[in-house]
Fold each of these.
Amino acid sequence: MQISSVEAIPLEHSLPDGHGLGDARNFGHARQTTLLRLETDTGLVGWGEAFAPGRIVAATVEELLVDDVVGMDPFAVESLATDSYTSQYHFGGDVFLQSAVSGIDIACWDIVGKAVDRPIYRLLGGTDCESLDAYASTMYYTEAERPPAAPIRDAVDAGFDAVKIKIGAGTDGDVERVRTAREILGDGGRLMVDMNGNYRPHQAIETARAIAEYGVDWIEEPVPPENASGYRDVTDAIDVPVAAGEAHYGRFAFKDLVDERAVDIVQPNLGRCGGLSEARLIAGMATTENVAVRPHVWNSAVGVAAAVQFAASVPDYPHSRNVPEPMLVEFDRSENPLREDLLETPIDPTGGEVDVPQGPGLGVSIDEDALDRYRLDE
């Protein structure tokens, strides 16, 4: 079996004027991503996601990857990430190359799973896993006026008892947002906060200490991803676990996070980190050093499916029968038809839990009509 064709499919959903949403850094006005469709000479089709703008991904695939991928045995999928550092020597660490490799890698795993009639999480070494806990990403900063309590109430009403909120625009405002979320979530709910790298270390430390009384499970990206010494300053100064990884790409960047004890939790995004193959290596490095793994998800439905399959494969080490900190899968609560409409059977987190698809490969089927509605090249 060989890959006979590779297609990059740019997707976009624009938000209405005045309804941008985002984090403490800025507002976004569109949801963009790229699907990779691979077909084999046997007729099997695999889907992956490159979490980057479509036209850039398409050009990267055409210029740097297509000649090596067409004719490739999809069972050789784990060679892709390594080859991206060697055959593309000067570009191996580039985010757009790693994103494109991620999409192709996921699509290859989808094909392999279909060929052997197994879900990807079992191919990655996972044991039987029917469902995973989900946490709601919510309380974004928005252009349109909305009471900050409303999205937390919506998440709790939908059955979530774990949420992550956006902070990072000043300590006073951070405290108010965390206090509001904790009041609505209740004492027993899990609460995480995301600063999106908008602080210097002393600012992140100030906020971390100010919100400590509200029982935060982790602080995400307290400083910019390139500020390695800042991560060490923050982790050394506070007792709350620190998480990062959505803006890190490939095994070497994650190895630095783990080796330097810069974080307590690594968060690879399957559409950027190098795909399932690199995520598998990253999880191995992290668990070996007793660092937790929680995938970052801000993707379309294909990226969500990949994250669920990956999360289901990550071992509970060092826990045995009792798992005081179970795996959590991020589920963005903002409106996103690229997530909600692209699958014939959407992944449903209602009740704060997601079923792990047990079908072959990713275990999902693309809704071709929805795909046509959101593709940019039509």
Amino acid sequence: MISGDALLLALFVVAVVNVSRYVSTLRTLLAVMRECDPLLYQQVDGRGFFSSQGNVSKQIRLFHYIRSEQYQNHHDPVFMQKCVKVRKLFILASSYLMLFIVSIFVVAYLGI
């Protein structure tokens, strides 16, 4: 039988890998956005997006832009593909993080 520590470690590694894939894809989306849509890049604070002084309200604007699929009316197919990939990876990474958090409580409650 698998131990609880091994299960948590495996889920943690999978969650970290998926979050790093999401952040990497988000960085490439911002690079593509800088070239194909400079106005949107400014609106989401692309230059300071990952800095400690980043404007959270502008970052949330990008989240809502991707969540509501407003990119489907964009003229650049590469940009649209990156937005789709960011959206899918966000869903995947957040799902794995939720699964990891739930599994922590399950392992602690069951004493595995």
Amino acid sequence: MTSNVQLSETISPSHQKSHPTAEKEEVDYMQRAQWLRAALLGANDGLVTVASLMMGVGSLKEDVKAMLLVGFAGLVAGACSMAIGEFVSVCTQRDIETAQMKRAIENKISLSAVDEQEEEEKKERLPNPGQAAVASALAFSVGAAMPLLAAVFIENHKVRMMVVAVVATIALLVFGVTGAVLGKTSVVKSTVRVVIGGWIAMAVTFGLTKFIGSEAMEM
């Protein structure tokens, strides 16, 4: 009897140690990806949009006020657009999930206590359109504020343009690494994709604005 007790006491700690590890491995990365995608998308969109607008205007005008004005306008317009778009999208998703839950309940003759509890838990997990709209607007504003703050105190036009591009690149690197680490995906692939995408957006905006602006001035 004593040996059996000692054996159980010896084995039980190892079993207790295994539980935390198992719990850590059961992280729902799909659920995490939903809010992560929304936050990073909003911040990345704000950064790239405003930085591209500032680069485009800077290709024609050296006045810092013009760059800051168009950047601020892009921040406000983009934040409002993101908030409205996210609100409508989440409302649609919520309506679809609610309708699906109602159909599931109607197809059941009677609900047990367990089923009712599951339905209540599903209702509590339904997405909140208001929260999603505010979160998207804030994320966009945070990303958009970075190039604005980088350019506000720099008088020299060329230095200002370079600083905006460098700050945007650093922020894109941070967004790429953060998304990869939290989502447990490839850091290199995620970072390269985000940075190159931002560079392309800024380069295209800069080039097309300069070309169209130059052609319009000659007319």
